[in-house]
């Protein structure tokens, strides 16, 4: 079970790969979902793919390829 | 291989698709088979219920820590998923955080789920008499995998996969 406050470093740098990898997967999944929301929001506000890419620290091509599919404004 | 399945075992396999969809998974994982076995009447569900578990409790535990967006793992990192969810919904609308991964079309079995089906088939073949795969065999297959998510969900409910498996052993082995 989770122990929200005192085990933060324990999970982040867990000696047990099962615990550590599970933490990494959970973070990645959360980051992916937030990225989808934030990129869509930025596009609605008129941000260019270059601006979004710069903010995310990736290339414009990478940002466009990952997020532009099926969007009618692209 | 499904020709050897009993009707309720077939139903469980079909239900696993729905369980996966309900949890917004993009594949049918062993935990979805477990949830299906708890939902469909038959020897599998009887064993699960005899162990003091039921579909509702398993489903709640799976929601908590059996999906990719793993609330317990995030809590251990100091991230309160409920707060993140509330904040994103306040800005982007209901279901914003969970809507992105809505699965579409026919979901496929993961390698682990296929393995569970194989294990249950193998078990049924060892059984004397009628070589059919019922939902007890399926449950046995799912539990034999030692899939980390299944183990986690059961542990969360103070269930032990080996004890549960032993419970159906006399019938199937």
From TrEMBL, chain A:
It comes from the Bacteria. This is RNA polymerase subunit sigma-70. It comes from Goekera deserti.
UniProtKB/TrEMBL annotation, chain B:
Signal peptide: none annotated. It comes from the Bacteria. It comes from Goekera deserti. InterPro entries: Clp_N_dom_sf, Clp_R_N. Residues 2-173 form the Clp R domain. Keywords: Repeat. This is Clp R domain-containing protein. The lineage of its organism: Bacteria, Bacillati, Actinomycetota, Actinomycetes, Geodermatophilales.
